[in-house]
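Sequence in, structure out.
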Amino acid sequence: MSPSVHRGGNRRRRSPAVRALLAGAVSVVTVAAVAVMMPSANAAASTLGAAAAQSGRYFGTAIAAGRLGDSTYSTIAAREFNMITAENEMKPDATEPQRGQFNFNSGDQIYNWATQRGLKVRGHTLAWHAQQPGWMQSLSGSSLRQAMIDHINGVMAHYRGKLAAWDVVNEAFNEDG
C-alpha cells in the first residue's frame, strides 16, 4: 500500500514541519543518487592510477629494474599507476645473496625511479620459499628462524619510513593445497 492511501479512517496527519523535513530528505537522497550515477566530465580521471586515487585506492604494478631503460615500459608504468612493486629486486635472494651481506642496489633503483615520479612503493617480499638465497635453503629450525629474523631486520632497517606497504610473506602455503 502506498503511503498516500489510507484505509479504515486511521489517517495520521503529519505536521507541516515533519512534511517539510521528509520532502527535504527525499530531495537530498534524489540529488545524491543522481550525483553518484552521473559523474561530471570534469571528475573523469585521465589515468588508471588517478581513477583509483579518487576513491582512496591505489592501482599498482610490479616492475623490473632491468626494464626501466625501456621507454615504452617505463612511460606506461609512470603514467598509469600510482603504486609500484619491485618484481624480484626486494626478495630474499636479491637483498641478502650472502648471509649478513645485503645488496639493495636494484631495489633502490626501483624505489628512486618511482619516488622521483611521485609514485608510492610497495615492498615485495620479506619471506618466500621460491626465492630464498642458496645459503638459507640448507638451514632449518632455530638457525632458519634466526636467519629470517636477521634478514627481516636488515631489510626493514634499510627501507624504514620509505615504503607505503610490505608484502611480508608470499605464498605461505604449499602450492599443492
